[in-house]
Amino acid sequence: xxxxxxxxxxxxxxxxxxxxxxxxxxxxxxxxxxxxxxxxxxxxxxxxxxxxxxxxxxxxxxxxxxxxxxxxxxxxxxxxxxxxxxxxxxxxxxxxxxxxxxxxxxxxxxxxxxxxxxxxxxxxxxxxxxxxxxxxxxxxxxxxxxxxxxxxxxxxxxxxxxxxxxxxxxxxxxxxxxxxxxxxxxxxxxxxxxxxxxxxxxxxxxxxxxxxxxxxxxxxxxxxxxxxxxxxxxxxxxxxxxxxxxxxxxxxxxxxxxxxxxxxxxxxxxxxxxxxxxxxxxxxxxxxxxxxxxxxxxxxxxxxxxxxxxxxxxxxx
Amino acid sequence: xxxxxxxxxxxxxxxxxxxxxxxxxxxxxxxxxxxxxxxxxxxxxxxxxxxxxxxxxxxxxxxxxxxxxxxxxxxxxxxxxxxxxxxxxxxxxxxxxxxxxxxxxxxxxxxxxxxxxxxxxxxxxxxxxxxxxxxxxxxxxxxxxxxxxxxxxxxxxxxxxxxxxxxxxxxxxxxxxxxxxxxxxxxxxxxxxxxxxxxxxxxxxxxxxxxxxxxxxxxxxxxxxxxxxxxxxxxxxxxxxxxxxxxxxxxxxxxxxxxxxxxxxxxxxxxxxxxxxxxxxxxxxxxxxxxxxx
Lengths: 317, 294
Hints:
Oligomer: heterodimer
Mean pLDDT of chain B: 87
Largest interface: A-B, 39 and 36 residues
Number of strands of chain A: 12
Distance between the termini of chain B: 31 Å
C-alpha cells in the first residue's frame, strides 16, 4: 500500500469550539492509483488533503495515523514533516493560479524554491526544462513573469514544480476548477500522464466536480460533512453507488443531453449540518430520504465488496 | 423584446490607456419573452460584458441595444427607472451582492422605497411573501437574517425574488449558479425554467455547457467577443459545425462517457480566423461563422 490513513481526525479551532472538518477518515491508496476526493463545499475534502502534508495554524490534529510507503508520516509535527514535504508528499495548492511569486521570473523563482529545500539545483534543472517542454510550455517560459502567462500555463508550471522531485504522493487541490473546459481537459489528462510516466506514484485529486473525476480517477472517495461517505472504483461510484448521498448528488448533475423540458432533475433538499456541533449518528440523516431510527447511530465505513466501502446502514443491509 | 444589433465594446488598457482591448465584436441577437437564451463562452469571451451592456452598467462602444423598439442608451431618469422595472440582473457571487453589515432583506426595502412607496405595509409584505414563495423560500427563514447566516443558494434565490417583485420581463442571469453546490444549484436552474414558462425572457450567461444545454431554448457560442455559432440549443449541441464548438463539446466531462481521443480538434483554428467572417445559416435557425458550414 502506498498510502494508508487510519482514523485521521483534524479539527479547526474557533472561538465557538472545534469545527469537526475531518472526522475519523480511514482509507488506502494503492501504488499508481489516482483517487478522486469529491464533496460539496465545506465537507472537509481540502482539509483532509492538506492535513496529509501541512496543518495550518488553525488546524488541530486530534488523532489518527498516516503511513506512506511503510513509513509513518508525523503529520502532527510540523518540523518533522519537513523532510517529507516536496520529496515524498507534494501538493498543488488550491488557487495555484496565484501561487507564483509575481515579482520573480519563473526560472529564478524555481531556483529559489529548490535552494530553500536544499535540492541540488544543477542536477534538477535539466529535468525541469524537459518537463516544461513535455507539458507544452514554450522554451522561454523561464524568462517570463507569471503575469505573462495564461491560467492554464500557470497551472502547468505549478504542476511541474510540485511534482519535480517525483513524490510518492501528489495532492491536487481543485486544480481544474478555475479553468475553461478545454484547458480543464488538457490539465486533467496531463495529471494522468504524470502518473503514467512515473513522475508521481499515486495521487489525490480533490474537486467538487464528479464528472471530471470520472474522466481521470481510478477510484472516487465521496465525503459528506467531515465524514467519509463512500469509496469505490470510479465506474462503480457513477453507475452503482450505494450511499444515498452519492446517488442523490449524481442524479442532480445536469449533463449535456439532459434538457429541462424533457427530464427535470432534482436537487437535495436541506443543507449540510454545521460542523461545530454535528448531529449524532449519520450526518446525512436529516436530508436522507431513506433514513430510519437506526441512523441515530453512526454507521461504520465498512466494505461492501472488494474495493467498495460505504458508511450507510442501508447499504450494508 | 430585447435586440442587440452589431454591438461592440472596447476597453482602454495598458499604461495610460494606450492600448485598445476589443471585448465584444459585432454581436447581434435577440431575446424573446418565454425564451431562455444561453450565452456560452470561456473566460475572456466577453459574455459578462454583454450582460452589463444590456443592464446599462457599461455603455456600448458601437451598435445598439433596443428594448421593445427603444434604444436603451437613450434612457434617462424616469424612462431608465421604468426600464429597470422590466429588466433586472442577478450576478455570480451572491455573497458580494449583499452589504454584509446590513440584514439581507435590505435588498427588498431598498426596492420598496424606490418603486413601491405607495403600497401599504400589509400589501407590501403580502407581495414580498408571494415572491419569496415563488422561489421556494420560507419568509421566516430568510427575513431578518444577515447574509452570513444564509447559504449561497438562499441568497441567490432572494436576489431572484427581488427581481420578481418588480414583475420583470427580462432577467440577465450572469453565472448565477456557478458558485452554488451541485445539490442546490439544480433547484435554482429549475426555478429559471418555471419563470420561463410564465413568459419571462432570460439571458443565461455561463461557461458550463451542460447547464446551458439543460435550460436554454437557444444557444450562442462566443469566442473572443465574437459569435461563432448560434441557434436552437438542440441544433448547436446536436450538430455543432464550428471547430471551436466541436472542441468545446468534446472537452466537456460527461458522467457516463469517457473523453474520446479522436474528437479533439484543438487549436486547429486560431481565434483570429473568425475575423471578418459573417454568420451564415447552415440550417433553419442555425448560424455559423462563414466557411465552417456545410
